[in-house]
Amino acid sequence: MPTPAEAIPTSLRTIPRDQHSISRKDISPNALRVLYRLRDAGFQAYLVGGAVRDLLVGGHPKDFDVATDATPEQVKQQFRNCRLIGRRFRLAHVVFGREIIEVATFRANSDDGSGDRELHEGGRLLRDNVFGTIEDDAVRRDFTANALYYAIEDFSVRDYVGGYDDVQARVLKLIGDPEERYREDPVRMLRAIRLAAKLDFSIDAATAAPIPLLAPLLAQAAPARLFEECLKLFLSGHAAAGFEGLERHGLLPALFPESAAALAANRSGALRRMLLQGLRATDQRVANDEPVSPAFLFAVLLWPAYCRALIALQSQGVHAAEAQRRAADRVTLHQASTIALPRRFSLPMQEIWLLQSRFSQRKRVPRLLSHPQFRAAYDFLVLRLSASEEHGEDVAFWRDAQVGAVEPIAEDEFAVDGDGAPRKRRRRRRRSPSAG
Fold this sequence. Notes:
alpha+beta; Beta Polymerase, domain 2; eight-stranded mixed β-sheet; 21 helices; disordered C terminus
């Protein structure tokens, strides 16, 4: 059973306006409207969670959540632009165009029989709609840094579990017993890694200690939910730091088992260098506000697994082209048992892999240039230079091909290059003088 709220000590600390850095000008006007409307209707209402945390460290929150003593139905009565969602956690969404302000009722950590809570026999929380006080709400949140409340009536910050000092110290600390909290919701382990990477926080020793032991519990999480968590982890602009956090805390084998095994077996470290370079490039694109395709992201994350599967199939005598297709299918299928990668991303991911061997053939150039995944596959080829310089000639050829400065080269056969990917040995053909 979850730790009773009364077993976790709370002590209200109020940080007045002149002692913290949060300003209303940095808060969404729509969030302020919700706060004022609920207050004027006689309810308690606070800005809560990540928005308060991020504002305190000088960040710019994208989402603003509100906590209140109003029930979801009472919130709906106050806002015509409100809809109620969720079964596991009943929430109110107040919709302002493209912005949604999420409003949650204070929740308690223990059920006296009047609420709606359901637990899995292993301790995992399936449904939690037991309402309580703000003190109850504070102790049932995951990390102390997320249990801070900004009060609209006096612009103070309310702290019940020591979160303010933890934010100032830039440390991530779970509320309550860490092992118990992870068993309630194993995805909290991923949240710890993501928040530490995003905020450049350290993870408290007691919070970090159970993670390697409990990593297999991620198998209990829905694969679709893990896909969404991966997008948050790797597309927030801190993908490289997030990946290193997964490695450091023993979560990589639970999340990407075949890639983790391939990286461990790759003694040269070439595959890891390439993967991290790809994640750093992703971070740079996010920083530049450029689009990032989940298909390309997962092509990078699962490339070590694909290379390992391909080498195994070729060592069994499977023809190279068939081995590529089977390796791509095998890796995608096996990974789906952990992370539900939608077909709209898994199919382009496979095409990125399968096009790599065609870059070394240098035949049917116009046809390959017109392939829908050519640009993503070419960028992936460029990325592979961080693992093996053998790809330099291919990169130069296809760079020139995009401006019409090359002719195709024939007579080739398959081999496997240094990073485990298919490659073709070829006889060189001289360029014609007209090719420049």
